[in-house]
Backbone:
């Protein structure tokens, strides 16, 4: 009797679902390609303005490298600490550049993985202080949660670099000597420009971000502000996900958002790794929405080159180059020089300029950045 | 190994409750069994009545699809939970085996070699867990937490801490190709529901798992091969987790080694909540399904209403607390009714 009841329950579950699925026309939340639409006068004006900005954003970025020498003799034997919020792909790629640059400068590097835990962030800085680090590169860690550790480093005279945690012009946090970062707000605006250009200033954009990560929020707000200022016929929705549950939250919230607003035709997860969780949702929904993101990780660039899974990326130069730049910036602080004020540039990469997604295609000026650094460092030796 | 305090009480073979004669108690029993299912039904009706999106079949199919991995993991978790043990390593086994599939295929190994290697890893993890828990006698929560942590590091090692993309289309189709509008991964989860229901309810093995979970010593005295069944359960759990890892690799088309922790709690929440339904006090397949879908419908409704992330987290957490508390109270009341 019980087993019959259970079987009945099971049949009910399956039957209801099958009936629903059989009745379902595949959800189509994507818009058709807008390239053939005739634009209104206001839309044309919007597009014309956007094209000018986008032309600059898609152009290859010039190589940023030091021009002043570095007193390598004074750096010999020094140890710098690379403390990152989590040793993800970007951090791995960047720290390889840090180690390469440090070796070239006669220094050593200690890697420290924060594993996403505040207590480890603090422990890492305190360890660096205890082991008399010459300098610290702090990547993606909110300075407010490590304020006392930063105070310890400052008291010990150890310069700490605020890396990729703010916009360039934001105030330098207490206990740190300078910001080495991109203009995330401007990158968000660039993403919005691309959407406007691609959609004929009629795009409906969903941004996936998290307010708990400052730079992601800068990206999201930058895109939102640009859309609202420049594109009256566009719409923008921000999906705020739980950064601790990205793998499940992105898919869950995105699918709900697409249900609520089937007209969304552009999805902008503000960090490259999130595209992995966007793809199955769009696939299941048979959505034609275009996907864009930011960082410039190789899998994402490859996806653009292959024409599947992603349509645009806001790419930095190679993370290894960022590592070299971080070392140069920190080394000058260690030597008491003023901060050079580097800003990490970005470039809009889409099907038109991705090429084969190699460094030579994406950042042609950065093919041999190491030589530029070494040449400058040793120019006074 | 001591039974976890959070494991719902289970009866021994001799103490299977005799039919209760009072009609109100019979009603109470039915209410307990079907309350969660009824709550799910009522919630769906409420949402259909108040939220326009719930009147579209596509919403239901996308809800079902999005929870397929969690459902697979939750069902897998019930296998060991029924025995009074924990296997916290299932989510990391999933990610580690997915990483193996992605890395090996990217390096030119044939798909079948990658699959066999992944399954072998899953079985190995299960065997190691069984060795430590069953043979040595270490608490299962601690032991499998250790294997969970080790597997997380292993996933980082074999992927070089990078996202490995470009999983071959064969794997993607294995998970994402659709049957009657639903991706295959959802069908795999439902097949597992039926298989586990059959094993739990219709086979002696299923009854043995209940006895072992309720009183290991008594089960041993009754002649049940307790250690063999516990060992087998861990190995099956590992193999299933590896299968889920293969599905994972295909579903996302890429493997991020850092996500294992994000799939740890939800499956156990669904399994524990499911133990309050259909066969109350016992981890069961249909109850797990109903529980997960109840949570999913609730969270989806909250998201459609524009609730912020913290609201859904609170909802999920409260649902788990309520479920475990309810299971405990049910167990106490049953024990009181029999004395």
Residues:
């Amino acid at each position: 009797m019980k087993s019959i009841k259970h079987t009945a329950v099971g049949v009910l579950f399956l039957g209801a679902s099958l009936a629903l699925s059989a009745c379902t026309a595949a959800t189509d939340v994507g818009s058709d390609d807008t390239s053939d639409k005739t634009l209104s006068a206001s839309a044309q004006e919007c597009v014309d303005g956007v094209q000018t900005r986008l032309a600059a954003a898609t152009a290859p970025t010039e190589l940023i490298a030091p021009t002043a020498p570095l007193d390598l003799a004074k750096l010999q034997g020094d140890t710098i600490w690379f403390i990152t919020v989590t040793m993800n792909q970007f951090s791995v790629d960047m720290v390889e550049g840090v180690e390469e640059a440090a070796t070239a400068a006669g220094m050593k590097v200690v890697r420290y993985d924060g594993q996403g835990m505040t207590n480890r962030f603090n422990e890492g800085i305190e360890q660096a202080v205890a082991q008399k680090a010459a300098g610290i590169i702090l990547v993606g860690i909110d300075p407010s949660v490590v304020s006392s550790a930063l105070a310890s480093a400052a008291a010990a005279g150890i310069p700490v670099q605020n890396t990729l945690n703010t916009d360039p012009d934001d105030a330098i946090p207490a206990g740190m000597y300078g910001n080495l970062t991109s203009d995330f707000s401007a990158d968000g605006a660039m993403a919005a420009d691309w959407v406007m250009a691609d959609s004929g200033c009629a795009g409906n954009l969903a941004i996936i971000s998290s307010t708990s990560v400052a730079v992601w929020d800068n990206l999201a707000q930058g895109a939102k502000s640009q859309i609202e200022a420049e594109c009256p016929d566009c719409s923008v929705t921000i999906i705020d996900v739980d950064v601790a549950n990205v793998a499940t939250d992105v898919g869950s919230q995105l699918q709900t958002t697409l249900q609520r607003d089937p007209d969304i035709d552009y999805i902008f997860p503000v960090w490259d790794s999130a595209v992995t969780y966007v793809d199955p949702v769009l696939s299941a929904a048979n959505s034609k929405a275009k996907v864009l993101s930011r960082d410039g990780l190789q899998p994402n660039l490859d996806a653009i080159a292959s024409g599947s899974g992603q349509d645009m990326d806001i790419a930095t130069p190679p993370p290894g180059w960022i590592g070299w730049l971080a070392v140069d910036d920190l080394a000058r602080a260690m030597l008491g020089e003023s901060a050079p004020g580097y800003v990490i540039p970005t470039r809009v990469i889409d099907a038109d300029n991705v090429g084969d997604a190699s460094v030579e295609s994406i950042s042609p000026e950065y093919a041999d950045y190491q030589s530029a650094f070494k040449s400058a460092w040793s120019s006074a030796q | 190994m001591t039974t976890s305090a959070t494991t719902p009480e289970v009866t021994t073979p001799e103490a299977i409750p005799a039919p209760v004669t009072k009609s109100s108690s019979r009603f109470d029993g039915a209410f307990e069994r079907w309350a969660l299912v009824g709550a799910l039904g009522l919630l769906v009706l409420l949402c259909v009545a108040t939220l326009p999106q719930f009147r579209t079949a596509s919403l239901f199919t996308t809800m079902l699809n999005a929870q397929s991995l969690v459902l697979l993991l939750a069902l897998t978790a019930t296998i060991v939970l029924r025995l009074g043990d924990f296997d916290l390593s299932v989510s990391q086994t999933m990610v580690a085996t997915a990483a193996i599939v992605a890395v090996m295929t990217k390096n030119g190994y044939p798909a079948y070699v990658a699959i066999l290697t992944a399954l072998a890893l899953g079985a190995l993890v299960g065997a190691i867990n069984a060795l430590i828990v069953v043979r040595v006698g270490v608490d299962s929560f601690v032991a499998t937490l250790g294997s969970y942590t080790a597997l997380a590091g292993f996933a980082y090692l074999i992927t070089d801490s990078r996202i490995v993309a470009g999983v071959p289309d064969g794997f993607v189709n294995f998970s994402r190709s659709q049957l009657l509008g639903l991706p295959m991964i959802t069908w795999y989860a439902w097949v597992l529901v039926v298989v586990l229901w059959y094993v739990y309810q219709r086979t002696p093995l299923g009854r043995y798992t209940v006895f072992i979970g309720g009183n290991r010593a008594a089960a041993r005295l009754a002649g049940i091969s307790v250690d063999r069944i516990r060992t087998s359960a861990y190995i099956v759990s590992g193999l299933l987790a590896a299968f889920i890892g293969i599905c994972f690799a295909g579903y996302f088309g890429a493997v991020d080694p850092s996500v294992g922790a994000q799939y740890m709690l939800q499956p156990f929440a669904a399994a524990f909540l499911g133990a309050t339904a259909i066969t109350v006090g016992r981890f069961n397949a249909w109850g797990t399904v109903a529980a997960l879908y109840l949570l999913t419908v609730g969270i989806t409704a909250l998201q459609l209403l524009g609730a912020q992330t913290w609201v859904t987290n609170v909802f999920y957490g409260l649902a788990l607390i309520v479920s475990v508390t309810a299971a405990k109270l049910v167990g106490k009341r049953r024990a009181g009714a029999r004395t």
